[in-house]
Amino acid sequence: MMKKIVESFVHRPGVHCESSAIRDVFEYHGLRLSEEMVFGLDCTFGFIYWKQKSAIPPFHIGGKIRKFPNMLPKFLGVNVERKTTSSQKKAWQSIKEMLDTDVPVPIFADIYYLDYMNVPKEPWNHFGAHTIVLAGYDEEKGEAYVADTSFSGLQAISLESLADARNSKYKPFPPRNIYFNISVPAKTQPLSQAVKKALMETSKNMLNPPVRNFGIKGIRQLAADILNWPKLLDPKQLKLTLFLTYIDVEEAGTGGGNFRRLYSRFLKEASELISDKRLLKAGEKLNNSANAWSEIARSLMKASQVKNAEQIISKTHEKIIECANIEEEVFSSII
Predict the structure, then answer these.
(1) Which among 46, 109, 136, 139 would be 20 to 30 A from 206, CA to CA?
(2) How far apart are CA 43 and CA 197, in angstroms?
(3) What stretches of 58-177 show up as alpha helix (H) in DSSP?
(4) Do 182 and 26 meet the contact criterion of CB atoms below 8 Å apart?
(5) What CA–CA distance (Å, rounded) separates 164 from 158?
(6) Taking the CB of residue 169, how many other CB atoms lie within 10 A of it?
(7) Residue 106 β-bridge partners
(8) What are phi and psi for residue 141, nearest 5 degrees?
């Protein structure tokens, strides 16, 4: 075929690329879940404080510890095949065949090359773990049509840009032409059971992480380390690191507050689903942590714009400890 749009595929705008994309595809296959539920069930939520001298920025804060698919397929009983190829021709052909049979396809793409996003062409703006859903194409026009997070409807992207976005080699998350084939059985695992397992898994990751830069330990490590950022970085590096940390925590598909706001809504929904009032309280507390993370992000943005940033950074140190204390309380109450 030269042209195809997947029939009956609907994109509803969301706040996080991965969970909104998977929610859209699940809904297409007849499994209707909220974005919050998809996010919570996959247990990718968490915390990482990542240090790498050669990276830009050299310090990275993340409110997620893994990428889809993580625990959701196992807990819910859906089948997710993760496929990849080094050939750009095969990468397009495989997806085209799925679209031709009315199957929407989630893929990883580097945001730098997505025309409709108008990302500033700076070397640190490569992010290849961005998840979008391919839902159609028109080869005569040289375009593909994708569903992407907060954008309404389908977005047009040139096939050339799409190929670049899928085949990007930029680290730390090169997309490697990865795409997913998702099939939903007529009967999935009971949602209440899946939710209980997901809550235990995420709480374990936060309270007893495998390494000390993850989970609550990682938040405390960040609190101690952030005071040294002005000594370890030259003014230009510091300015960029503070600005990009603001983006990572508040703007870059986190739903605000370093994914805490999104997960707090999952806790509220889980509370109603399994009739556990503890989860409602835990969700309210986690929302307080989300607000504190937003405040930290705004302070770091402000610090990036002044000459003497040390004073502002030292104030964020206390806020980060506050977040660690709240989140330790939240996840201890779940276990």
Answers:
(1) 109
(2) 10
(3) 72-76, 88-100, 159-167
(4) yes
(5) 10
(6) 10
(7) 133
(8) -80, -15
Query: Residue 214 carries which DSSP code?
Result: B
Residues 149, 13 contacting (CB under 8 angstroms): yes
pLDDT tens digit sequence for 38-79? 999 999 999 999 988 777 778 999 999 999 999 999 999 999
Task: Give the residue with greater pLDDT, 58 vs 280.
Answer: 280
3-class SS at 311? Answer: helix
Check residue 52 and give its pLDDT: 83
Per the CB < 8 A criterion, the answer to whether 317 and 299 are in contact is no
- Whole-model pTM: value is 0.96
Question: What is the SS3 assignment for 300?
Answer: helix
Rounded distance between C-alpha atoms, residue 270 and residue 12, angstroms: 21
Do 15 and 266 touch, CB atoms closer than 8 A?
Answer: no
Q: How far apart are CA 189 and CA 74, in angstroms?
A: 9
Residue 122, both tokens: 């700076």
Find tokens 């770091």 and name the residue: 300
Helix (H, G, I), strand (E, B) or coil at 97: helix
Q: What's the rounded Cα separation, in Å, for the pair 316 and 313?
A: 5
Half-sphere exposure of 208 (CA within 13 A, CB side): 5
Task: State the pLDDT at residue 172.
Answer: 83
Can you tell me the distance from the alpha carbon of 157 to that of 136, in angstroms, rounded to the nearest whole number? 11
What domains can be seen in the chain, in order of their start residue? 3-32+79-183 (3.90.70), 191-334 (no CATH)
Radius of gyration of the chain (CA): 20
Per DSSP, what are the bridge partners of residue 144?
137, 157
Task: Name the residue among 325, 335, 217, 331 with its Cα closest to residue 282.
Answer: 331
Q: Is the sign of the CA dihedral 146, 147, 148, 154 positive or negative?
A: positive
**C-alpha distance from residue 42 to each of 22, 50, 64, 284 (Å):** 10, 21, 11, 21
Task: Tell me the angle at which helices 191-207 and 35-42 cross, rounded to the nearest 10 degrees.
Answer: 60
Q: Using CA of residue 210, residue 263, residue 323, residue 309, what is the dihedral sign?
A: positive
pLDDT at position 142, please? 97
Helices (H) and strands (E) in the chain, counts: 12, 9
**307: pLDDT confidence band, cut at 50, 70 and 90?**
confident
